[in-house]
Structures are given as C-alpha cells and as structure tokens.
Amino acid sequence: MDAKQRKEAEQKLSYDGKRVVSAQQQRLSSMLRDMAEGRSDDHWNAAMKGTLIPHPGAESKTEAIDRERLARALSSAKK
C-alpha cells in the first residue's frame, strides 16, 4: 500500500479507528527504536527469533477449544 492509499484509508476510519492505528504505529516505532538501541527485552528477542519456549503448564488454543466443546457436549447430554 503506497502513501496515497494509506492516507485515503486512514481518512475513511472512525475517530477510534484512527486512534488505534496511531497507537499501533507509535508502539511499533518505539519497539523498533528500542531494538536498534539494544534495549529490547529477552522475551521479545526470543519471540522474534522463533526461539521462545512455551511455558510447560500452558495449553494451546486448540486444547482449550476442545475442552470447551467437550464440556458443552457433556452439559447438553445431561439435560
């Protein structure tokens, strides 16, 4: 998306949408600046490198969804 298209898209956004876009741009800018200056945290570095190890007690989203579906099926079967 070139600058002209981006500007047109931003003009079509609502006030809240513009604030969200602005906040996202500011966050990204500050993260990139911090990384360039060597101030990024270990978690961010690991996530960007793809070496972030999930917590052993954490469950994946699919596991949580499967458990939720099973619970719903069991509760509807009891009724």
Structural topology:
Elements: H1 3-12, H2 15-36, H3 42-49, H4 61-78
Biased composition (Basic and acidic residues): 1-19
Region (Disordered): 1-22
Note down, in words, how this protein is organized.
- With 79 residues, the chain is mainly alpha-helical.
- It has one domain (3-78).
- It is 73% helix and 0% strand.
- The protein contains 4 helices and no strands.
- It has helices spanning 3-12, 15-36, 42-49, 61-78.
- The longest helix is centred in the first third of the chain and has 22 residues, at 15-36.
- The N and C termini lie far apart (53 Å).
- Residues 1-19 have a biased composition (Basic and acidic residues).
| Helix count, DSSP H or I runs of 4 or more residues | 4
Query: How would you describe the shape?
Result: flat
Tell me the major beta sheet.
none
**What is the string of SSEs from the N terminus onward?**
HHHH
The gyration radius over C-alpha positions equals: 21 Å
Count of domain modules: 1
The count of DSSP E runs of length 2 or more, i.e. the number of strands, is 0
Unreliably modeled segments: none
Could you give the distance between the termini? 53 Å
The proportion of residues in beta strands is under 5%
Helix-strand category: mainly alpha
Mean pLDDT: 82
The percent range for helix content is over 70%
Region (Disordered): 1-22
Biased composition (Basic and acidic residues): 1-19
